[in-house]
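As practice, study what follows.
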Amino acid sequence: MRRTAGLLAGVVGLLAVTGSEPAGAQTGMMQHVDLTSPKMSEAELSRTDVIALLEAASADQPADLADKGLNGLDLSGLDLSGADLSRSRLNRVNLKGAVLRGAKLDLAWLIEADLENADLRDVSMIQAQLIKARLAGADLSDARVIADFEGANLEGAKLTNASMAPDMRNQSMGLMRTVFRSAMLDRADLSGTDLAWADMEFAKLRDSVLVDVDFNMARLGGVDMTGADVTGMNVAGANLASAKLRQLTGEDQIKGLDQAINLNRAFRK
């Protein structure tokens, strides 16, 4: 609880730095952020500087890159396992093939970042911004995530057993949900992932693996699940208006379908 409260306080502080007002959730947050400002577009360290910090780090004292401006850097292929990147600004950074297993990316900015084939297992991404980021083939298994992936590309990504639902015990600033609005998740594996309350509107999940995914109370309007394996998927309380639920595997094993909203407006044939 203390950690979550601290993160929420950090959101307020970061928005203050970027000249905005505190927001109850992600909605409207980006309109207050100037991505062309030096703070959000320039780097204060070089790749060489980052490598030096990584080489000086140890298992007991991971690299400290918290609150650093790393915008636009080429950090591809680097091993940043366990690094503290909380509140860091990594907009348009190249992290293709990088290893960030167990890294802290809470409150980090990764707008249009390239994380293709990156190892993001066990990362923490509370209130991270990954709008239009590229994560095709990335591995986010067992990650703890409450982030905004609107318009991001996660084609073929692995998100198995990830925890992406909000902590409903601490929502004093309004519901902070994971957002995959209009994201590409075709052929992604989300088996066992908790996406309760997530905003998945118009996301593409064609031929994806959604076995035992929890979409309780999620926004699934316009989502395309054509050809997906939905065995054990839970949609209780989820809004399915205009959702494409065609050619599904395990459709007869979907849970909570009788409790879903606007099921009669979904496309099922």
